[in-house]
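Job type: complex structure
Entries:
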Amino acid sequence: MMELLLVQGLNGLASAASLFLVAAGLSIIFGVTRIVNFAHGSLYMLGAYIAVTLFAVLPRDQLGFWGAVLLSAVAAGLLGALLERLVLRRLYGAPELFQLLATFGVVLIVQDAALLIWGPQDLLGPRAPGLRGAVYVGEARIPLYDLFLFAVGPVVLALLWLLFNRTRWGTLVRAATQDREMVAALGVNQRWLFTTVFFLGSLLAGLGGALQLPRGQPATLHMDLDVITEAFAVVVIGGMGSVPGAFLAALLIGMLQAYGILVFPKITLVLTFLVMAAVLVVRPHGLLGRPQGAARALGAGVEAVIRPAPPALRRLGLAVLALLLVLPPFLGSYAVSVLGEIAVFVLFAASLHLMMGPGGMASFGHAAYFGLGAYGVALLVTNFGVPMLGGLVAAPVVAAIAGAVFGWFCVRLSGVYLAMLTLAFAQIAWSGAFQWVELTGGDNGILGVWPEGFLAGPLPFLYLTLAVSIGVTLLLRRVIYAPFGYALRAGRDSPLRAEAIGIGVRGVQWRAFILAAAAAGVAGGLFAYGKGSVFPTYMQISRSVDGLMMVLLGGVQTVSGPIVGAVVFRGLEEQLLRLTDYWRAVLGAAILLLVLAFPQGIAGAAQAWWQRRGAGTGPAAAGTERGEAERAA
Amino acid sequence: MTAEAGAAAAARAANGMADGMADGMPGGAPVLAVEGLEKRFGGVHAVAGISFAVGAGELLALIGPNGAGKSTTFNMVGGQLRPDGGRVRLAGQDITGLPPRRIWKLGVGRTFQITATFASMTVRENVQMALLSHHGELSGLWRPVAKRHAAEADALLARVGILDQAERGCGVLAYGDLKRVELAVAMAHSPRLLLMDEPTAGMAPRERVALMALTARVARESGIAVLFTEHDMDVVFAHADRILVMSRGRPIAAGDPETVRNHPEVRAVYLGTGKTSGGH
Amino acid sequence: MPEPGGAAAGAAPPVLLAVSGLHAHYGRAHILSDVALEARQGEVLVLLGRNGAGKSTTMKAIMGLVPPSAGQVRLDGADLAGQEPHVIARAGIGYVPEERRIFTDLTVMENLAVGRRPPRACLAPWTPERLFALFPNLGEMRNRPGGRMSGGEQQMLTIARTLMGNPRLLLLDEPSEGLSPLIVEQMANTILQLKREGLTVLLSEQNLHFAGLVSDRATVIEQGRIRWSGTFAALEADAAAQAQYLSV
């Protein structure tokens, strides 16, 4: 028994090493550039794949092996620097979430590139020459390579500490973490600084990927998203931007995973996120993190005054509604199902927009409420034979209850931490659906959730979907213009001022969270009936990211943004799926292009165009705008 | 030991000051009475025992060097910070440590050193928010904000002289106008006490005088007590009824403008020769 | 009272900074139109104007932090307009922003280290020791994080940090804002000391009393346009200009 515990513990420490390397890189990049870099996982994956190739090419001796490891790391570092120079550099002025969106576009492109280059099968690497053996403690076998990995973490930690505290580069980086523009004004070339930071961070990711291979863990096409969620958790638990924090957190997670599998084999997937939730509730900035002073809050871009829709837009809206009423009978069955899905996603995006736009709370886990709505319906239908009306009422209730519980914790945080806690809760919900097989059927999902009675036909069901989705979306719009929506926006614009005129900001945010969850639940319920089945994928991170894409592509700061975003994104995805096997890469490229072309989102860009076209600026207006711009600068 | 003794002496002196002030008030309890307020940040004693009182219609200026503890004192009175010791009373009622929104409901309006307004709303909507909150209508999910309390909001905007800007977004307003919006918002619920942290910072000389003259007139007309901090001595000496000078978290002098202006310690730690402030 | 106005006597020193035809926009708003100003070697030029008149934007446009849409910014004849901030800083312009913006996580010494650039031939190089002689307070808190300093100390540190870059021209954006009268007096003495060292200073201010203590010449900006230029003494005599542009 003791031996088993020892082996598990050492195993945990060994996997902590790689996780620490990846998380440290992520943390360093975030600290300086404030970019939540989803593509960091892709660099980890590339590090592993490149190492596989190099191991095969280079001689199988000590020099060849370690040379391959180092070269893979350097290659990942260079690719990271390239990513910074080609894509992210153009987005430093854009709202922070746009950079996140762009990095997700890169994730999709890299996935398909890896598929194209290395093929779909998992690839194993060789054992490390000279470290193939093991030492024995009693009966317990401890591989030498694992012992080597224990040392890697502390050594890298020490080197990074020296780099940041004892070199001029480190001082400059720490200064830039706080105020990049000021660093530039003092004569430091911040582009060069950022590129080197990306190089270092990506190098650590690549090293982490390469060092995993000799443990017998293969390079796979899904290791990017697997590691990035874990690395996010580690960075958040440790405190964003704190390398020692990442080290502590990686150890914590590594050990927890190792022992967790012995104690709670059923909930290993949840453990990390339970820990993350627990840590954030107690320490809102992570173990060793500090509040990010001057950094802009996530999701808070340039505030535009929200005004009622102009008559032209109302007319357009009415025209679209009329079209939706008349058109469906003339559509084919495929078009009917796509139209229904788009309507559902319009509602999903609108519900997320309520949180992100007026609420200023970026959620990386909104799919949880969509999925919980869907599972609520499916469980009630299959276990209790609840009729459809009951199911559609239950969906938002289930989602709202989850929203009330999760949201209660989330609104106590802000910015990236809030976003990460929403992600943690979503992962918990997802692992519940995935691992609680008795209730949810696990990966096989729940089948047989069909609409009934006169609504069973595709056409009547489409009308129901359109009516409910559009109806609830319009209700959410109404809320944004009502006092509650204003109070929510007030808390986002200036919590200080809001509290000073009697608005309880957290309370308002919590209620908005619940409302958004309920609306997402409605969307999930409709989706379940539309598909006839539910799966854990409804709640997985990529669905949450889809939601983010729709809201951001449309434009967070406009009320119509999510509608436009959902239609464009879902339409694009649907078309690409039909046209090409490499739809991920094309979608990723499309996202990159859209982000680079419309940093305010599509609806935001349209609004700006409309205003430019409509209102000629009189001299008086220009005069006072000068005052504003002077302050804004 | 000596530090403690010193603190005790300062507290006694400060309490004396508060008593003296309260005695001077017509009609009993002052609007705001602060007694022995203290705040520590880590090892630093940011505010080490301060007491004062402000009566209805009176303007009390809190001045002192940077880092003297003025803003900390302000934030403890307004509820943004919780004091480590001492009491804050509003018209006799203990409001120590209450959250800002409760303190607001009890009749305290405030403006901030760096203006805090809702940038994504128009000037009128900013005032409407305060009015909606005052009328307990913030939870409304249906009737749009646009038509609610608009006339009342416009009356307040007219009072501070920016009605012509009502339709413009607060994000595009000149700084001096934002200060006026804040004043209109702070007065929306007819407060008993106005807290103004550097109300004229960043304004041109004439605007400064105009804003404080407006504040003083409104305060006297409506019997509002005003506590303000300020670095512009022209403004302080022209509009304050009384002045309290802080240094290193403690009161060092208090009294009418003339007394404070000639106080040797105040000149040594704060006013200097007065050549940069037009003091003489 | 020290003696300003040395520029008028004898042969005028050469022009160090010459800004001409400078325009800047934020989005559609035209913030600066045709701004022109000149600072001669070793003088203190004050840029006066109301809040929002364009003082800070002029400074930022010179520094490259706001890209000018047209115009020249010549330092000793070389046009820097349109260059990146770090290039402009390296050319010899030091910028002290209104909001101070010290690095609160870094110590005093580290803040100074960020500003360090190689010395220039024409001026005695700044070292931390020389700066501590100028700002004795800072010398007593070398290892204190910037976040634990008072507003006055932070203002001193932000100037010291910029001086570490050995600039030839110092841009000081409203250095007296939010400081107590006593500290403002110290600031005036510091500026005069820097002037004696041969540094050229472009100062933006609203506090006329303060500006009068240190400035040789004044330029008045309103609504993004230059309205008045001349010696400070002439401005003090021109009550109409003061009332019209500065709302005194």
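Summary: Chain A has 26 helices and four strands. Residues 293-302, 615-633 of chain A have pLDDT under 50 and may be disordered.
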